[in-house]
Every structure is written in structure tokens, then in C-alpha cells.
Amino acid sequence: MKTQGLDVKISDFSPHLFWDVNRNELDFDKNRKIIVSQVLQYGLFEDWVLVCRLYTMKEIADVAVSIRDLDKKSLSFISLVTNTPKEQFACFTSNQSMPKHWNF
Fold first, then answer.
1. C-alpha to C-alpha distance for 17 and 47, rounded to whole angstroms
2. Which of 10, 34, 46, 59 is disulfide-compatible with 55, CB 3.0–4.6 A?
3. CA distances (Å), 35 to each of 30, 48, 85, in order?
4. From CA 23, how far away is CA 3, in angstroms rounded?
């Protein structure tokens, strides 16, 4: 699958999204999961718009379904926007099987 947003560059995204990787080595096709995950969890609205220009909503949903560490807000957002049931996401099923200790 090739990206559709040919005019989008990695430098267009917020600088805080990819602080832990070399931005120059990110490839929109190979690193799709990293890009979608970072934007869903830490991105601004402008970053979301850029991701939507890069990938179709189905591509974003397919990637998001496989992300195991997606937080609850991001899960709810992507589930609503893509009309995908929460139960289909890996983060939903893995979080259910690993209950947390008391929350003080």
C-alpha cells in the first residue's frame, strides 16, 4: 500500500511525536504503525489531519487494531471515528486479560 498524501513530510508533524526515533529515517509505508500510534496518543489535531491525508481511514483502522498499548481515550476516539468495535482492538483484549492493581 502506498501513501496517498504525497505532499506530506515528516517535518510537518509536531516535533514532540518522534523524539525517540530518527525522524529522517521514518518511512510512511514501513513505519505506519509508529506514526499512527504516536499521532493517536500524543498528536495534536493538525497531526491527525496529516495522518488522514497520508492514509485512508481503513488503513488507519487496520493499523490501530494491532496496537497493543493504545490508551483508553485514543481507543475510544479511533473506535468511534472508524466505526470499529472496541472489542476488535488488541489493546482492548490485552488490557482485559491483565487487570491492574488498586487505583489509589
1. 9
2. 59
3. 10, 10, 22
4. 17
Rounded distance between C-alpha atoms, residue 94 and residue 91, angstroms: 5
For residue 57, which of 80, 73, 74 has the smallest C-alpha distance?
80
Helix pair 32-42, 57-65: axis angle to 10 deg:
90
| Residues of the chain scoring pLDDT < 70 | 1-6, 94-104
Instruction: State the pLDDT at residue 16.
Output: 92
* Domain spans of the chain, in order of start: 10-86
Q: Are 13 and 43 in contact (CB under 8 A)?
A: yes
What span, in angstroms and rounded, lies between the C-alpha atoms of 78 and 57?
A: 10
Contacts of 67 (CB under 8 A, 6+ apart): 33, 36, 37, 40, 89, 90, 91
Measured CA distances, 52 to 1, 92, 98, 101 (Å): 15, 23, 32, 37
